[in-house]
Amino acid sequence: MRDKVHDLSTVVATIPDGAVIGLGGLSMNSVPMALVREIVRQGKKNLTVVALVAGMPIDWLAAVGAVERVITGLVSLEGFGLAQNFRRAVQGGSIAIEEYSEHLLICRLQAQSHRLPFVPTRAGLGTDILKLHSHSRAVREEIDPVTGESYVACSRLPVDIALVHCHEVDRLGNARVNPKLIWMDNELVNAADRTIVSSESIIGTDEFRSEPWRTTYPSFMTESVTCVPWGALPTSMFQVYSHASGFYERYSRACEDERTFITFFNKYIVEPETWQDFLRVNNLGELHKQNEN
Amino acid sequence: MKINDTPQVPGYDCTIDELMVVTFSRALKPDTRAFNGAVSFIPACGFMLARATHAPELVWAAGSIGIDASPTAIPESTLSDGIWQGSTMLANSPFDFWAHAQGARYNTFSFRGAQIDKFGNVNNSVIGQYESPKVRLAGGGGMADLSVMIPRIMLWSTTHTPRTFVDRVDFRSGLGYGDGGDDRQRRGIAGGPVVCVTNLCVFGFHPVTKQMQIETLHPGVSRSDVESATGFNLDSSEKVPPRTARPSDEEIRLLREVIDPGGARKREFA
Fold it and tell me: FRET partner for B64 with CA separation of 20 to 30 A, picked from A46, A102, B2, B38?
């Protein structure tokens, strides 16, 4: 059997410029931030990012001009304000936003997962979201000929590579999220042509065999895996660590001044050599460990 | 968004955030089955308060995932995992969530935005022209979905100004009564907004035109205060709207000591 475990830089090196990336996680939960930081460090260009509800990762990619198109339902740092680099890039025209609501985007991914022409929903009826797509017709109002009901048909959305973070993997590429609390990651994995997984730890395949009901992604769905403890920080990994409020605060403060931001960004996010260095420089790790939940 | 000091309500022993939570809570029906999205501190407190007072059977899926949660502290993000504490179930599948939403098993949805228009439509996408926006906002998230799927819509705003309450939203991220009247019904969409709780007043919706109208005024706020803080014309009927009811001592105690001792609800105030 092929060993799918590689180091962080090797798995990220397989992502070509211009790729359509499906970014896992939701808002401040379980985003594969170590993979995102490595994309920043490797200087990828012209990426399209599909992210249902995101903030910090999109802002990092926007800060270095790695992304040219964002397909999303919402981008913000929530209680810490707007994602300012993203906001500036969209207002300045350097990033194109393809905006959907959550369920329209989920339906597009489900259509892609099943390789079907479309999946129907009632989401978005009567809103301006549908008007944004009147030219591409990626989502469009139609009438069911049998019942006469209106629905929105959501065309499939091709995704080249899904990036997701999980708790445990084995060398064959089986992956577990403990517990399986991942909002849309499954849709991204099923929709994407290939999937790169970052994981908190590596365990033996015998452990997967002894509790097979706990497996989230089967090995045939994953192309490569990399072991990055604390790999979702500053976002959270449920039952292991919480999101890092202090980092979010410092980051959103640094974003206020566009001129000094890049110095902050280089020093604290880009320049630390390894993920361990990044954690150390930003005082991330043990401090964020979750207690009983 | 920090925890800010909020103004005292004149004549009431509480602050404006507390009056808003209590008013929101009282507007919740006992059969409420609700969930919350991002930056929803007022509703999260309101659901817990209603459950502790007049609506013991209220269902609340915290962060849309933690069913029947009872967090001891409300985290900085109302979507983060800390809010799931004490749940009877972590609903881990978006298939289940969207079935419960689209099938109207959930019946109540609360959302806010940068702009709200007279028919309760909400904008959280852009200020200005869509293609060359003055401000690119966060986006609507699930607003366009849930405002269509869920019949009972409850709006709130902590920034009652003419910039927030506009005649027409620049972009309709979430659906209220659309163009007003029976527009929503004609599209085959059930229900609509029932209330909008602001920091100045409580709005209801006219039964026929579906336009916002003042239901109650918070203490110290006059009708003309609301008129000048609102960017659309309000129906100026003869009678003076009543004052927003006073929170009970018990409601304030529960809110301060049990539900939100950390004051997360104040995060919504600039």
Answer: B2
